Amino acid sequence: MYIRLRDFRDENKIQQSELAEVIGVTQSTISRNEALGRELTKKQFERLCERYGEELVMKYVMHEGDKEEQEAPMSSLAEFIKGKNDANRILTDVLLKQQKTIEAQALLLAEMMDMLKRDLAEIKEKLK
Asked: Is the pLDDT of residue 81 over 60?
């Protein structure tokens, strides 16, 4: 059974830890269920109704259409994350190219330093 747990908790001022204890799961499971819209088991639903009353709990039961509406933000989130991943890939490519450019410039500078050292040595020899 799908229940809008976050709304249920917020509107009834219930902590995740309290709700977790009532239905027999961990607080992190409640957090995950809220974030991902996971379904409660029949036993968990019964425990919720026993503790808070069936009438109150039923206000937060999601029907099929409600579930589809809730999934829309999740797909938007997935698209957002995909966009972020794409941006990260592009940024990584740019940074790798910059790193290669910097490495090439460092090699050129090292060669120039070697040339200057040789020139300086030659000048010292001529001055002797």
From this structure: yes
